[in-house]
Amino acid sequence: MFKFKIGRKQPEDNEARRRLQKELFGLSKVCDRGFPSRPSAIAYDNQLRLIVIGTQTGEIRIYGQPGFQLSFSLDVNNSCSCNIHHLLFLNGSGRLIVLTTEGYIHLLEINNYHSHETTNHDSVTGNITTVRLDRICTSNEDDSICLKQTQSICLLKNHLSLLIGLENGDIVLFNIENFSLTTKPIIPNEILMKNIPENCHGRVSNTGSVQSIVQHPTNDEKILIGYKNCLIVQWDLPSNSHDRMYVYKQEIESLCWYNNGLNFASCHTDGSYALWNANEDINALENEKKQYGPYPCMTMKKILVKIMRNGDPLIIFSGGLQRSSYSTKHSVSCVCENEHEHDHSDRQRHVAFDFTTSVIDFFTIDKPSSDGSRDDPQSLIILLKEEIVFVDLVTDSWPSYRLPYLNSIHACPVICTTLLYNVNQQFYKKLTNYGNIQFDDYSDRKWPLTGGEINYCPSSSNLNNTLTNSLDDGCSKRQILLTGHEDGSIQFWDVTDISMPLLYKLKTNEYFQIDQPSNDDGEEENWPPFRKTGFFDPFSDDPRLAIQKISLCTNTDTLIVAGQAGQIFTFHFSNESVDTNISVHEGCESYVWKGHEEMKIKQCHVSAGFVASSIVQLFPPASVSALALCSDIQTYAVGTAHGFTLFNYKQNRMLTVKCTLDPASLSSTSAVQASGETSLNRGRSLKKSLRESFRRLRKGRTLKKTMIAVNKRSETIAASGPLEERVPVERQVEFREFKPVDDQIISMVRCLYFAQTYITS
């Protein structure tokens, strides 16, 4: 076996061809657009106004104002793991600390580089400033053994030390200046166990892992530590001793300070949260509440308490829903007690933002008052597994922001794409105007991230990878990407610069009758007050809605869309909302189709924008495999696995229909349809398959019994004498004759094209 493996060698011509392919077809990544895959951590710099997202594959992306983006990838060839566990910004310094799951700590820095480049048009040399993310240093392998057990981290305000909580309950110190780890724990759990109050010894037998470490907002010498097994400790760093200890009845998940350090909050595994007075030893617990109780609830994983501009507390937490009813839901809840409102109907604002994927982390962007008594949260950023959501906390209704970047292109599975270059300005303005109407429900406030500077390039030749952040807003050469999705939607993306915002979304499912499951628990949905948030929805109501082909002419504003069930739309811009009642033009019906049924059209109300002017339903309703548009003669051609047709969308008339199937198979199918023997054959084949399966079961049982008997007989023969050598029976390998592929695949139309030529008279 191995001699064939070792002795076999690829032909030399293949090796030469492979080398030639590397020289001629070298691919390199230019930029990263959309939402990163498999995110794992997020951090925010409140001075530079930047956010950073880390992934499980070691990708790091930094975002600021629309158009500013930096990317970095941890070295794959390095021995350390690339799965990012924690991210921390050294505020205002442009430095970033990255902690991986394998226990390695990386220090990254944002640097400016000046280069001299000459434009192609006027040969003028100018200074171009590019921004790059560089790695400064990495921790050694000895420290990684200890840091593998990291459960929580806290960066002290002096930016010189990093407190790391471990799974065994110890807290170690990592020095950022010399980038080394102290081997001895600065807060060992043995010391805490000796100082636990006597009345709590039975409730706390072990501290458990360090779940949360937070530094005091005003006193840098104090930190708050939350241990898994119901223990909360206020620790004094200079004296290396505890000030106060609190023991709760439930396990701790997360802690946070609020009210300028006078109070703190804790959330727990039973779905409850507690509010504490930080200056009290006895009766420190001010309030405890299970928001979605009293029934058993899921774990509340994180909590934040912010003081709003009017002095009301805003409580933000993830999880905590009832386990029996909402165990599959993912939510972040915002509860605001309006203590200053006299109207009791508006005493509480409560929204449970409902997402389709799990919550990784969340934080708020604040605008604190000068005395620090008010946090005044402006925005809430929620990182999810498949998307990111920005919520406006200043507007009373708490709407979401329209994302200028980080859009989840795969919110619904992408089936087909079309890229358009040099889109004319009139079409682009129409598209953006109609798109703004679709986003009326979103926040009107300015984008909360304003960090980063953008240097506009004098020519397109300066565009390269992630160092260039944006193009000029007045650029006349626009590029639009169209994506067709499984749910029957078409999305228009502006890919002129690196941001890739969503311009417009067209839905074709509004034109069809779709059987949707009835919602019987409508009354129960009033509590909790869920609000569907985010775009990610991987589930489709009907697989027949999937978009297969897209063709767009920006000069005539004509869009042709073909679907999975043989439906072809013709869309044009309309300034007013209309009620559509479109007649369906069907294709040839001389073929027996055993697949899905065609879509049923319904009358619907469509808002201004792209409105369908005609719908063609092909028969058989097979998936469209080819599409071509010629707007000069107002005609398009469409092909399937059974043939192709030409349709004039101005006159709503079929010009020609051509079947590509074999005439013999077509006649046989029609004969079968006339005789009505298909159902009989299906019934006979079902009975035959059932009969054969039962025979196999009986045969298997008899073979098992005979094998047992043969084994016993062979044992007796072996005991009596040597067994004769058996010559293996050689089986002749027959040559398998090549069979042609299915007739349906041979008949499939792969490509259609309108060509201009001359006709001789």
UniProtKB/TrEMBL annotation:
- Domain of life (superkingdom): Eukaryota
Cellular component annotations (GO), alphabetically ordered: cortical actin cytoskeleton; plasma membrane
List the keywords (alphabetical).
Exocytosis, Repeat, WD repeat
Molecular function (GO) terms listed? Answer: GTPase activator activity; myosin II binding; syntaxin binding
In Pfam terms, one family for this protein is: LLGL
Where does the record place the Lethal giant larvae homologue domain? 289-399
Q: Which biological processes are named by the entry's GO terms?
A: cortical actin cytoskeleton organization; establishment of spindle orientation; exocytosis; Golgi to plasma membrane transport; regulation of establishment or maintenance of cell polarity; regulation of Notch signaling pathway
> Which InterPro entries does the UniProt entry name for this protein?
Lethal2_giant (IPR000664), LLGL2 (IPR013577), WD40/YVTN_repeat-like_dom_sf (IPR015943), WD40_repeat_dom_sf (IPR036322), WD40_rpt (IPR001680)
Q: Which SMART domains match?
A: WD40
Question: Per its UniProt record, what PANTHER family does this chain match?
Answer: LETHAL 2 GIANT LARVAE PROTEIN, LETHAL(2) GIANT LARVAE PROTEIN
- Which family does the similarity line name? Belongs to the WD repeat L(2)GL family.
Q: What is this protein called?
A: Lethal giant larvae homologue 2 domain-containing protein
